[in-house]
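quick one
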Amino acid sequence: HQPRHEATNANFPRDGEGRVHHVGVKKGEGGPKFSYVQSFLMTTVANRILSVGDHRRASVIASLFDNPSSNLVTTSSRGFTVHTGTFNKVPVTVIATGMGFPMMDFLVRECRAVVEGPMVIMRFGTCGTPQTHIPIGSVVVASEGSIFIRRNPDAWEQDGSWDEKESKYIFSKVVRSDPEISKRLAENMKKMVADCQVYEGLGATADSFYASQGRTDDSFDDDNANLIDQMLEKYSSISALEMETFHLFDLARCSKGTIRSSAAAIVLAQRRSNAFLDKATTERIEKEGGRAVLLTLSETDLTAPSNGN
Ligand code: R1P
Ligand code: URA
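structure w/ 1-O-phosphono-alpha-D-ribofuranose:
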């Protein structure tokens, strides 16, 4: 006689009700809340997902759904909040992840495990920009894909084994976003967000907000004073520095053709002038831009090849 809540498989743990271990969702929870989509929405998570870092941003965007009072909302003890409903009668899910690429790993893998059929996952985040011509309050669409920047801890090894000629920060190659979705996303952003420049460029996802984004801190030996120059020397079109998008595109690439993905980010931080966006403007762009992402998600053809491959 098994206890009801025992997790059953260490390779991909779920609880006794079938909920995945971190995001806390399972198949088949749509139920009677979804009158007109009930027949095809049979899960807590729709095939069209918008991922954001901030829980407040997720709630604001979920309030733009057709009938927000009947949204299905699930929270997990690991910091995920999942809002599912419809936008223009199309089932959609907004998920607040918190921050960092491991959270994106949980989101993509655990949602993939509870959703049937092809998926599109888009991210709408915030970012800093190393480009002098991009002002705060702009939106950057990662049309050129993203790279990953990580700090190499071996460089601080004190046994003398580190070769000083090597870089202390490692830049990956580019992983692509879906070109068609990125194009639609940029068009919708331009139409739907007031007083906002929309740029298309390369994203750079870092393993930290601080050292690997070139922020300096007297309390730590990060040796990163020239990191912004170094990243632009290698990839001159880096326009958005943030912490999750590369991993989304990387997993979409590895999803055996089942996930399409793109991303946009609001420029909060101008890394050359040190300007930082005010709260009121941030909240307005989150709402208007959130609507543009929902429209793009709802219009996306799920059956097209993933990320143009
Ligand atoms: C850091 O402040 C956070 O902001 C960005 C980064 O990717 C990181 O998660 O995105 P979100 O605003 O979506 O969290
Ligand atoms: N998010 C980041 O990761 N970096 C920034 O500079 C701003 C938001």
